[in-house]
Amino acid sequence: MILGHASKRFLGVVLLMITVGLLLTACQAAAAPAASPTASAATTTSKLILSADVVQGSKNVPKEQQATNACVLSSRFPRNSEIVWRVRVYDPRTGNMMNKSQLSKVEVQLSNGKTLTMDYGPHPKNPPGESYWTASWVVPKDNPTGTLNYTIVATSVDGRTGEYKPISVQSSLPTITDQTLPDLAQAG
Question: Where are the domains of the chain?
Fold first, then answer.
């Protein structure tokens, strides 16, 4: 069978591609596998790992609305509402969550200059649930509207630290709205 000029050219391109493919495969097989960056980083890191969220607190939420509005993830907060930060702190060496005997302090640093000290304990308190770090802040009635950025910093008793910063997308940061909740008597 006689091949035309176009067929010969096509056959040449196919053979070239097969040859290049074989050479690439042979070169890759001979290369030593690279060390996993996560495996080596995990054994040497000392930075604490923080996982956090923000929820609406129960202060000034009517009792009949607390089941659906209190302790619920939120990024919109009226004035006179309670913002609650919840945090878990992990030791990167063990992977275990750290409690108050292992951490000297955990704080929320607000962009308005306020610093909130976090407490460790079970949530809910009655009946006791799982334990984690929390701090809350009631938005003043005269607080400006807009976003409220924050950073959470944890310090272990041996001096290691870790930091959590929320993703800085304006629409997902805690935002103070122009609504103002009325003062409600809280059951004590």
Answer: 45-180
